[in-house]
């Protein structure tokens, strides 16, 4: 395939891939994305270029510190557990205008990703992965032990701790506290808002939400 040939051709001598084709610095997130794409196409982990890619990724800390969107993408394909990414509860759609945070208090470009993410996290419908491709060889630790934070660039440990506690509470609340009818009401509102403003996904990995929700 032309896509696979192009991806292999842009692999860096160090084994990874840059943020853009001309970038000579290994980007962990892009390297994980390309590695997964090549495995979906059919490349085998023992092939020379895949071994170099794996070693480059492991030197960067493995799959665990990849950014949120890559994490969400891999979760949808069943490569990572839902517990590995922060929770975006769809109930945010029901917050009143006077509340300190609502989706209308963030920029439109951010909202166009935020709403589909909430829908995807509520539905938890897996993407099509016919070969059951995994990335077990890219983990430093156990997939079940990946915390939703920190990610790349998380240097403030106090904020990391605060958001970790908040995320644990949101995961518990959405599973055990918030009534199902309230969640369903929020989901319907999110889908209605998405439809009333057109295609609300700016990230390619979120397109399934905008077309199949």
Instruction: Tell me the name of the CATH class of the largest domain.
Output: Mainly Alpha
Helical residues, percent: 40-55%
- Give unreliable regions as ranges: 209-213
Number of strand segments: 0
CATH topology of the largest domain: Glycosyltransferase
**What series of H and E elements makes up the topology?**
HHHHHHHH
* Termini gap: 31 Å
Name the beta content range. Answer: under 5%
Q: Based on CA inertia axes, which overall geometry fits? A: elongated
> Based on the structure, what is the oligomeric state of the protein chains?
single chain
Cα-atom Rg, whole angstroms?
Answer: 18 Å
Overall pLDDT metric: 87
Q: Total helix count?
A: 8
Describe what you observe in this structure:
This protein is an all-alpha fold. It folds into two domains: 1-60, no CATH class; 78-212, Glycosyltransferase (Alpha/alpha barrel), CATH 1.50.10. The protein is 48% helix and 0% strand. The chain has eight helices and no strands. It has helices spanning 2-9, 28-41, 48-59, 68-76, 108-123, 157-177, 180-196, 207-212. Helix 2 (28-41) packs antiparallel against helix 3 and helix 5 crosses helix 7 (180-196). The radius of gyration is 18 Å and the shape is elongated. Mean pLDDT is 87; it is low at 209-213.
